[in-house]
Amino acid sequence: MAITLRKETPAKAQEVQAWDPFREMQSLLRFDPFREMRPFFNNYPAPEVAFNPAFEVKETKEAFLFKADLPGVKEPDLEVNVTGDRLIISGKREEEKQEQSETLYTWERSYGAFTRSFMLPQGVDLEHARAELKEGVLSLVLPKLPEVQPKKIAVKSEKVKA
To answer: Is the pLDDT assigned to residue 91 strictly greater than 70?
Structure first.
């Protein structure tokens, strides 16, 4: 009986350590098994791809930060609302007009309306919230109320007499 030992290279070991289940789930959700077959079905219209912008949400000691890639979305077409503990961001990106004389070889950009909602924790200071749309990136800062920001408590110890 022969036993073969497989030795992994350091590069492969790094790939295993760098696996991110959330990134894997995003790629699975974007997977379209029929995309490659569309050229064979010219008589059928391609399904409309909805515009679904990517968001980044993070928390600091002072605030909650939201960033979204919104290329082509104009400020009047964007709404940011808070209802109760729910942040709702909605907008639309208009489709570009196509001339009859143009030849279209591929159509991969998406257009249309979108709505995203996020649950907010208690302690968000909505009076001082600010939003900015600059160069196609929405930046939204929701500061925390002072009473919910972390505070350091000094620890005192008693000296033991010997």
So the answer is: yes
